[in-house]
Each structure stands twice: as structure tokens, then as C-alpha cells.
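Tutorial, part two.
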Amino acid sequence: MLRKLKISTRLWILNGLMIVIAFLSFLIFYVNLERIKSYSSDMLYDEMLQLKKQKIQAATVATAKIIEKLCENISDEQEQLAIIKNTLYDIRYDTSSTSYFSVYKGSVMQVFPPSPAFEGKDLGDSADSTGVFYIRDLVKKVNSGGGFVQFWLGGGSNSAIREARLKLLYGTPIKGTPYWIGNGFYIDNILNAKEELQLELGDVQKTSFFSIVLGVGFFLAFVVMPISWQVRKSITQPIAYLSEQLQSLGKGLKVDLISSDNKHEIGLITESVNQVIQEKNRAADFASAIGEENFDFEYEKQSEDDVLGISLMAMRDNLKEHRNAEAARHWKNDGLALFSSITHSQVDDLGVLGKKLISEIVKYIGANQGCIYRVPQDGEKVMERMATYAWGRVKYVKEAILPGEGLVGQAWLEKEPTYLEEIPDEYLIIKSGLGEACPKMIYILPLISNDEVQGMLEIASFKKLNEIEKSFLESLAESLGAWLWSISNTEKTKALLEESQHLSATLQAGEEEIRQNMEELQATHEEMRRREESYKRQIEELKAEKAV
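Running the prediction step on this input gives:
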């Protein structure tokens, strides 16, 4: 058939075939680029959405953990709510306008940093334009341990937001409290990023198309197809690798930085993903160090406005302060328990018990000298020294102290502790193997029970006491006052018991004498009764004889 055609026709046919082949080849290439663009943008959208959800979830759960730790020993709901407000009003997990946290009790909003006027409103009946009761549904997810709810925000005639926007909310419970915390983000931001990526990939696609159209048709089959393959591989391989790394990151695994020499859009995306990886790895290392109670671990912020870095540092400082407070509380409680065991020990000799007590007090607070005085309960207004520890040369301390005499006597009258850091000259000298020197501090505490001074405690040390040690000694003084009061009551009870036993013996002797008298009286009474009956019989007999 071709033989019948003119050469020019054949050439036209050949040219046409070449054009058709070129068109079909480019059409196939174009279709492949469209599929790559759609696949890449969809895959990146899914990964960005998943990463955003992971970020929201991680930030919300971490913030809930912080609040749980701060409210650990607080049972009052209002105190818990005050702590939550102070913690969340200034916290943002990133720099976006919607990166705040909100707190609810059931469906009632409790904390809403952007607009506190909404706090206290019940949003259980709030529904979007499609009929989704998003707060109600989110409460159900929270009661199941936490979850996401998607809805359209705004768009109604009564809404302040005229244009409806698709939003995703996440909520999780705050254990130990009746509240739960939530956060969310607009999905259309990610959709916009997807559209921008599609436009950028579309520009690349158009540029490739016009380059091939303007190229030489003879090289179409030898150049375009290899280039198409390379272009496809240069786009899909980096994105596939990015997707794999983002999936690992989303699962909470530690991911190494992604190496890339590309300067185009994929390279920029790689740099952004590397920043996220670095931030998460550093946050994971910081959280691990805090979990091991290494509160001196430093976290390098990305900038002065690094919200996550500021929040992590604030969390570390709060946990450190809480740990120190707990340690101080345990130290105080352990000390009170120790001295309670000493005072309740089965030791009858108060001198031995007093020496044991004052020596342990001085050692426990790291002081150098100590002395305990006791007010006898015999009516004498004088205080006797009960026991001392490491007491050297004393100028104003005697075996017996009258009210108002010296620092101890003055504190006795005032019933108030006396803390001195400016010690009177030669009032007290502390001696050691290295020599002797005046103390830096003297603390005198009245031991009070039932509003009566039962004794005094005097402590001297080269070091000054901190507030925790002062509080401990004040609590210990109350305990020792009750202990001395119980000793005095025991002594009084013992004396009364001895007196009662003596009186009981005297009464028993009197009772025995009375019993003997009663027995004699009863015998006399019985004898008189017999005589009376005998007399009655004699009288009856006489009456009978007289009648006869």
C-alpha cells in the first residue's frame, strides 16, 4: 500500500507517525508526572497530618502529665483548677495563634486562654453545620483514654467565624483531677500546604513539557524517556524515604538526620523534617534525663520564642522544686518519727533518755551543742537543766534558771522562740580539736503543752539554720512539750496512786474491824431474839394456866 503513495506522502506519514509517537510518548510522560504529583502530594499530606496529630497528642499528653505532677498532693478541685490556669495561660506548644490548651470538666469549659469569658460555659450542646456534637463526642473519647474528633468550625449565621473551617480536636484526661485537657488545629492549613506543593510540582511539570516540545524530535525516544525515568525517581525516592522516616518519627522511634544535597523543594522539605527530628530527639533526651531526676540537664532553645523549649524548662524547674520540697518534707517527717521513737522508748531514767534525745537532735540538724531544760511540777517556779550535749564553757546557763533570767529565762516568760545570729560576747564557746570559737547561731525554743511551758530547748551551731530546719525544730518543740507534760502527768498519777494504795490499805483495815463488830452485833441480836421467843412462850403458858 505504501508503494502506491508518493514519497512526500510517505514523508508526511512518517512525520505524522513521528509526531504521533512524540505526542503519545509525551502524553505518557505527562500522565506519569500527574500521577507522581498526585501521589507525592497525597502521601506528604497524609504524613504531615499524621505528624501534626502526633505533635498535638504528644504536647497535650506531656502537658497533662505536668499538671498531674503539680496536682499530685492536692485534692481540692478549686486549688487544682488554679494551678491549671497558672500553668496554661502562658503556655503554647508552637507560635501559631491556635496553639493554646483548653481545659474542661465534662462538657463545661474551665480554662480558655484566648477568651476567659467562655470559661464556665457548657458546650455539650454545641454542634457544627453537619450536626456533629464535637465536645460531647470528645468527652466520650476522653473517658476512653483520649482521642480525636473532627468537625467544621464556624460557617453558621450565629457563628463569629463566617467561613467554615475543618478542625481536628484532641483530648486526654488529667489523672487525679476531674478535668481533661484539649488542643486542636485546622486541617485546611495542611490542605493549603498540599495545594502549594501541587502547584510547585505542576510548574516543574509544565517546564519539562515545553522543553521536550521545543526539543529535537529525533532525540525524543532516546532522551525524554530516560529523563522521565530520572525525574520520576528523583521525586518519588526522596519523598518515599521522607515518608518512611516520618512514619518512624510518628511511632515515637528515634530517627537519624536525613542527608540531602538537593536545593529544590524536596531539599527544603528535607531540611524542615530534619529540624523536626532534631527537636524531637533533643526533647526525648531531655525528657529521659528528667525521668532519671537529672534536673541539671540543660535544654538548648531554638530561639527566645521557642515555646516547647520554654515549656520543657519550666517543667524541669517545677519538678526540681517539687522534688526539693518533697525531700524536705520527708526529712522533717523522718526526724519527727525518729525522736518520737526515742521519747516512747522503754527507758525509766530521764537523765539517760534526755542525753540520748539532745545528742540525736544536735546530730540530726548538723549543729554543735544543745541543752534541754525541764520545769518541775512541784510548784517551784524554777527550770532545771535536764541534759546537755557537747556543752563547753557557759556563762549565763545554770543548773537552775528562774523566769526572766538570761536568754532562756526570757524566752520562758515570752513563750516565743528566740533565734540569734549576733551572740553576746562570751555567752557560749564551742570547743573542738581545732580550737574554740563563738557559735554563728543560737536557737532557743519553749516546749509548750496546754499553754504552759514544760521546758526549753537550746541549740548552738557554727552554721545558720535554714527555714526547713527551723520549721522542724518548732514542730519538734511541740512534740517534746507534749512529752514532758505526759511525764509530769505520769509522775502525778504515780504519786496519787501510792497515796490511794495507802488509803485503800487503811480502809481495808477499818472494814475488817467493822465486819467483826457486825458479826458480834448479829450474834447479840440472835441471842436477844431467842430470849424474846422464850419469854413469849412462858407468858402464853402462864395465861393458859391462869385460864384453867
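The radius of gyration is 47 Å. In part three we will examine how such features are distributed along the chain.
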